[in-house]
Amino acid sequence: MSSLSAYNLIMLRLAEWTETPVSEENDGFETPGVPAPFVYVEVVGDLLEQQTVGAPGNNLWLESGVIYLHVMTPNGRGSRDARGIAERLTTLFRERPLEDLHPRQMSIGAGDPGRSFGGYYAMTATITWDRQDYTNL
User: Fold this and answer.
1) Which end of the chain offers a freer environment for a tag, N or C, measured as fewer CB atoms within 10 Å?
2) Number of domains composing the chain
3) Whole-model pTM?
């Protein structure tokens, strides 16, 4: 999992999204009675690595991770809507750093085909990120 600081920055940016409901990990979201598009978000921190060597409390740390934006659309309607939503979601992060968190690479589908889950089709937009943090002891 990512640090709380990185997670909060990412979720704050996603609060700008109004096209569909956004669900995050373990939030109790219930799918609509009539299938409708929504986005399920996972924020994963892959690495926390010290970048400098110096006096304790004065070192730079690099945190890196991935945002998975699972665009869920009703089954049986093709992938066009899911691809469009995924593309518009990634524009929230393009060339827009989030304080000390910087989105780096983005992919729609990440080379994988969409998948079906119950009454939904999932197309995932993936955004890699890194965040520089100075130790504050």
Assistant:
1) C
2) 1
3) 0.89
